[in-house]
Design goal:
This is NAD(P)/FAD-dependent oxidoreductase. The protein is an alpha/beta fold. It has 2 domains: 244 residues, FAD/NAD(P)-binding domain (3-Layer(bba) Sandwich), CATH 3.50.50.60; 148 residues, FAD/NAD(P)-binding domain (3-Layer(bba) Sandwich), CATH 3.50.50.60. It has 17 helices and 20 strands. The strands form 5 sheets. Strands 1, 2, 3, 4, 5, 6, 17 and 18 form an 8-stranded mixed β-sheet that branches. A 5-stranded parallel β-sheet has the order 7-16-8-9-12, with helices on one face. Strand 4 and strand 5 form a beta hairpin. Helix 2 packs across helix 13. The longest helix has 21 residues. It is globular, with a radius of gyration of 24 Å. The structure holds NADP nicotinamide-adenine-dinucleotide phosphate. NADP nicotinamide-adenine-dinucleotide phosphate binds next to helix 5.
Length: 507
């Protein structure tokens, strides 16, 4: 059905619409399903659940947060195969969640949201997708900030006649064996990909713009005895989860540049480099020129050794342009390639979903967020009534499990949706309350390594320079501030007088 055809069809009405079925959207759906009070639909543009864990299938993809922590607290998995589970296992976990919790029938697969607008006449959200129309009392965007690949602005990239793909859009039909391969980027994705590609490549060139800090990856396979223990005695898995949580939480002072914490992690990283890379020239190239923690600290035991293989080169000269044969460096040296892997991250600072969500004045979130995302309680936006955002502004973490942040928002939103539906109300953050909240975030960001560490990263908004993606405090503080909905700070409007509502409930 075309979009125009869909206009002739009656809109599907539901209480709650969720955009996305990754970790956050799926978790939100499970919370609503288990509560059993709300009618809800999940819109998913792809043909499967899983979000970034469905899309990132590159060789070596795995989580760099421990799986016993990087999983829902309400669905512990005692049988994680290892400390840092590989991507297929995480995707299986999400698929099983969707299936076992009865979420799949609620998901409309293959539907891309084209426009979501607040309709003042009905006080409902009106959502147009590539396959239909919906109306809802509450709209939840769970589109994530690692969902849309970011491509580098490099001259001539489209003229390359070899194969090109982004790390998040891996083409598995293309054999990478016996190829001349280039990888642009040295972030969390690239350092997992590089050791895998190097195994079979004729030659692999890693194009580094800035050196990352890398620390040892303390990974191991869980034995059958350990998995059996976690299965039979769930408290042991919970104790492990708690221990992992506090281990991550205790690292936050690094990001506030507390000297003892910085020195400890910095020497861990630099010793790792020294131990693994004896060659001084290569080590120099791999030594970061900014404070540790300014960008994500990476975990790997095989990245540095891979760079010392005879079929691998680290190129730091800088890319001038790409032509039909390969990459031309700033010194005019050229590197001919068969495959160019773009491992340059995601559109996290300017979220593409913001372009399709329109508020009371008709303007989109993207138009409001010219200087970066801003939200009340990191979850609601003034001028967008009955709208909640998961993993929106200032919800990312430099260290820690995003699942903790997601579960915090799930609870807040579930309570917010309860308030909206039970009171036939609509809630819209007071502009002043939102301004004060965002100001408190900016104040807390001051002095952090993200702003003062001397690097440029996607954590800072490219136009305003503000920290708009990361949460600048302890994870526990996020939960304390944003873990429970109250109407304070919101303009609340009731669809029908409260007396009439009470009367209706009694009869
Ligand atoms: P990323 O961390 O944003 O890294 C992008 C890399 O591309 C950086 O090295 C960057 O260099 C480089 N780059 C960007 N534009 C470039 C250009 N025009 N020319 C040359 N180099 C360029 O992206 P990512 O590695 O995909 O990771 C993104 C996020 O995904 C991570 O921070 C993490 O949150 C998540 N992730 C998690 C895991 C996991 O294990 N859980 C794995 C992968 C990804 P500069 O440093 O100089 O900017």
């Amino acid at each position: 059905m075309t979009i125009n055809d869909s206009r002739h069809r009656k809109a599907v009405e539901t209480e709650v619409l969720i955009i996305g079925s990754g970790f956050s959207g799926l978790g939100m759906a499970v919370a609503l399903k288990r509560e059993g009070k709300r009618d809800f639909i999940v819109l998913e543009r792809a043909d499967d659940v899983g979000g970034t864990w469905r899309d990132n299938t590159y060789p070596g993809a795995a989580c760099d947060i421990q799986s016993h922590l990087y999983s829902y607290s309400f669905r512990p998995n005692p049988r994680w195969s290892r400390v840092y589970a590989p991507q297929p296992e995480i995707l299986d976990y999400l698929r099983a969640t969707a299936h076992d919790e009865g979420i799949v029938p609620h998901v409309r697969f293959g539907e891309t949201v084209l426009k979501a607008s607040w309709d003042p006449a009905t006080s409902m959200w009106h959502v147009l997708t590539s396959a239909g129309e919906y109306t809802a009392y509450a709209l939840i965007s769970a589109a994530g900030h690692l969902s849309d690949p970011s491509y580098p602005d490099i001259d001539g990239l489209s003229s390359f006649e070899g194969k090109v793909f982004h790390s998040a859009r891996w083409d598995h039909s293309y054999s990478t064996a016996n190829r001349r391969i280039g990888v642009i980027g040295t972030g969390a994705s690239a350092i997992q990909i590089v050791p895998e590609l190097a195994r079979e490549a004729t030659h692999l060139t890693v194009f580094q713009r800035s050196a990352p800090y890398v620390i040892p990856r303390r990974d191991h396979v869980y034995s059958e005895a350990e998995k059996g223990l976690f299965t039979r005695f769930p408290d042991t898995a919970q104790e492990l989860r708690d221990e992992l949580f506090w281990g991550n939480e205790s690292r936050f002072p690094q990001r506030r540049q507390v000297p003892a914490f910085i020195e400890q992690v910095s020497s861990m990283a630099l010793n790792h480099l020294k131990n693994q890379v004896p060659d001084e020239t290569l080590r120099q190239k791999l030594t970061p020129n900014y404070a540790i923690g300014c960008k994500r600290i990476l975990l790997s035991n095989d990245y540095y050794p891979t760079l010392m293989q005879p079929n691998v080169s680290l190129e730091t000269t800088g890319i001038s342009h790409v032509d039909k044969h390969g990459v031309v460096l700033k010194n005019q040296d050229r590197i001919d390639l068969d495959l160019l892997v773009i491992a340059t991250g995601f559109e996290a600072a300017d979220l593409p979903v913001a372009e399709v969500i329109h508020g009371t004045d008709g303007k989109s979130l993207a138009e409001k967020w010219q200087n970066g995302g801003q939200a009340y309680a990191c979850t609601a936006v003034s001028g967008f009534p009955n709208f909640f955002l998961m993993l929106g502004p200032n919800t990312g973490l430099g260290a820690g499990s995003m699942i903790f942040m997601i579960e915090t928002q799930i609870n807040y939103i579930k309570e917010g949706v309860g308030f909206i539906c039970d009171n036939a109300a609509f809630v819209d953050p007071e502009p002043q309350a939102q301004r004060s909240y965002v100001e408190s975030i900016y104040q807390r960001s001051g002095g952090s390594v993200w702003l003062e560490g001397g690097c440029s990263s996607w954590y800072l908004h490219p136009r305003s320079g503000k920290l708009t993606t990361l949460w600048p405090d302890f994870m526990t503080q996020f939960r304390k501030e944003n873990g429970s909905f109250t109407p304070t700070g919101y303009r609340v409007t009731f669809r029908m007088p409260q007396e009439a509502l009470q009367l209706a409930e009694q009869t």
